[in-house]
Amino acid sequence: MAPRTPASKATAPARTRPRSSETTPEVPATTSGAVAQATTFEDVPLTAEIVAKDVSAWFSGRKVLERVSLTMPAGKVTALIGPSGCGKSTFLRTLNRMHELIPGAEFGGAVFLDGHDIYDPSRRITDARRNIGMVFQKPNPFPAMSIEDNVLSGLVLTGQRVDKSLKEQIVEECLTKAGLWKEVKDRLRQAGGGLSGGQQQRMCIARSLAVRPRVLLMDEPCSALDPTSTRRIEETIGELASEVTIVIVTHNMQQAARVSDQTAFFLAEQGTPGYIVEHGTTEQMFDLPKDPRTLDYVNGRFG
Ligand SMILES: Nc1ncnc2c1ncn2[C@@H]1O[C@H](COP(=O)(O)OP(=O)(O)OP(=O)(O)O)[C@@H](O)[C@H]1O
Ligand SMILES: [Mg+2]
């Protein structure tokens, strides 16, 4: 399939479901890759199915992903596994249109969020970012900013006016969901940079949640963390899964087995573009994979 350039001239978006934010103005992307939309914080975020169809990706004309198709069901955790360089991060970035921010990057295929192609020229790029948040490998807080302001930064940076009591509610709710509230509730005005690495990562998860994504993409969110912090984030993922669809890249097979409902195994053989060898329920992928390469990989025999 020929690469297509980003649809940047999009106009009116067609929302699939009414939300409390229908009246809020269009706003730019936040640091977490999502966009603020909450004017009230009462309704529960709607988890959504995300479907990749024949997704290919190029960097400066070099193809690095070959027709990847994968359904990531609503309210479930999907783990992406595979050796370094096989295209997991690239695939993840195609799911919220961050791929196209990289100079020389091209994209082919389609990504459907609850049935609507996020690359459709009639849809705004900010719609994808608003609905599909991202947490990165290294926590990226604003270190000098207070914990509560870090959580609210997505809303504030995008010009959302939220009254004080609602702000407090958002901070508590998001920190609770991210599994950090109890640890920081007495020091919300202290600098975010003063938290441990694991706490910072949970604060960044809370920041992503404050803009109320329907899907949360996580690219090796625990790789810079100690085992205790890792376990805490894994618990958080388990707690969030019912309200946000999660797609997580991990090199840790035990982690994939612990946190995910389904797993997709990516591979890029000898300079060829990455593709999915096999996907299925995590149980099946670890206990009874169909492809011998999957069996070797999940047992640590290569990669
Ligand atoms: N910004 C970029 N410019 C050019 N090539 C890139 C860029 N980012 C990634 N690539 C290339 O695309 C391919 C897939 O990279 P990607 O980062 O998606 O792999 P990955 O599976 O996430 O690897 P890892 O497990 O090491 O994070 C690699 O060959 C990589 O060198
Ligand atoms: Mg990567």
Topology diagram in text:
Elements: E1 50-59, E2 62-72, E3 77-81, H1 88-94, E4 105-113, E5 116-117, H2 125-131, E6 132-135, H3 147-157, H4 164-177, H5 181-184, H6 197-210, E7 215-219, H7 227-240, E8 245-249, H8 253-259, E9 262-267, E10 275-281, H9 282-287, H10 292-298
Parallel strand pairs: 3-8, 3-9, 6-7, 7-8
Antiparallel strand pairs: 1-2, 1-4, 4-5, 9-10
The structure holds adenosine-5'-triphosphate and magnesium ion (MG).
Residues 88-89, 219, 249 line the site of magnesium ion.
What can you tell me about this protein's structure?
The protein has about 300 residues and is α/β, with parallel strands linked by helices. It has a domain at about 50-140 and about 215-300: 3-Layer(aba) Sandwich (Rossmann fold), CATH 3.40.50.300. The chain is about 30% helix and about 20% strand. It has ten helices and ten strands. The strands form two sheets. A six-stranded mixed beta sheet has the order 6-7-8-3-9-10, sandwiched between helices. A four-stranded antiparallel beta sheet has the order 2-1-4-5, with helices on one face. The radius of gyration is 19 Å and the shape is globular. It binds adenosine-5'-triphosphate and magnesium ion. Magnesium ion binds near residues 88, 89, 219 and 249.
